[in-house]
Amino acid sequence: MTQLGRFGVWRGYGEFTPDGAHELEELGYGTLWLGGSPGAELPNVEDLLAATTSLTVATSIVNVWASPAKEVAESFHRIDSRYPGRFLLGIGGR
Fold this sequence. Notes:
The protein is built from three helices and six strands. By secondary structure, it is of the alpha/beta class.
């Protein structure tokens, strides 16, 4: 099960850096919430997870009308297999 921690930080997608993610993890934050709507490949998510050891990265919304479901599912499985239980995929429409 994905653990979100007691506190998280929300910023627009692409505003987090790997160094910033590492620093937030060191400060005790549990989750980075990526606002906006990233593409189906979910760029940057793996970089943020690679820079941390326990932090969860969550997408606020991946737009189902703009991102093909098959590509999003492939990206989710790729990321989850490398960082089990540390990625939360939020999907929706605008």
